[in-house]
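Workshop exercise sheet. Pairs work together: one partner reads the sequence aloud, the other fills in the structure field after running the prediction. Swap roles for the next sheet.
Pair: D.N. / O.F.
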Amino acid sequence: MTPQAVLWDMDGTLIDSEPYWIAAEAELIESYGGTWTHDDALQLIGLGLLESAEIIRARGVEMEPHDIVDHLTAQVVHRLSTMGVPFRPGARELLFSLREAGIPTALVTMSLHRMARTVVDLIDFPAFDLIVGGDDVARPKPFPDPYLQAASTLGVDIRDCVTLEDSPNGLRSAVASGAVALAVENLLPLDGLGAAAVWTTLDGRTADDIAALHRAHRAPREQETTR
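Structure field:
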C-alpha cells in the first residue's frame, strides 16, 4: 500500500532557503537601524507570512505588513534565481523517487505562491502536481487548512497522505490535518509534537521508505474500521 499523495513543506524541508530568509530579514531590519540575531530569526520559522511581518514591523521597520512580505519574497526569489535551488540533503532524490513511483506530490508552503512557483520552475524535472502557497489559504499553519486544501484539490483522503515538515508550526498543521506526519530535523527540535516519525535527514530515503512509513501508521486506523 502506497500513500495517495505526499505533501511537502518547502522552506527548510525541500530546500535550504532559511539562510536566504534570515539574511533578507536582517538586511531589512538593519536598514531601519535595528538588529536581528539568529535566535530572532528562528522564531519566524513556520509562521504565517503576515504574522512574521508584524514581528519584523515591531523591530522598527516602517512598512505595511504586505509590503514587508513582498520585499522579503523578492529578495529570496532573487537569491534562488541567481544562486540556484539549494536542496536539503536527499530531498531532490526522494522527490524524484516519488515521481518515478507515480505518487502524486504537492508543495504546501507558507511562502507566497509566486515564490513557490519560482522554486518549482527551477527544478529540472516535473516535480509537483500542485502548489498551495501562504496566500492561497485563509488560515496559515499551524492550522490544518493548507494540508486539507492540498488533499481536497488533489482529490485524495488526507489520512492517506504523508506530509514532510521541518518546523513545529508546520508539524502541528500536518498532525492536525490527519495525515501521516513525518518530521525532518533541521533548525528546530520536533520531538513531542505528534509526528509519526522523526528523521534526522532525507539522505538515502526513497519512495519505498515513505510507503513503509505510511503502511505502519495507516494500518491501525484500517483495523479499527473493520472491527
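Discussion prompt: The mean pLDDT is 92. What would you look at next?
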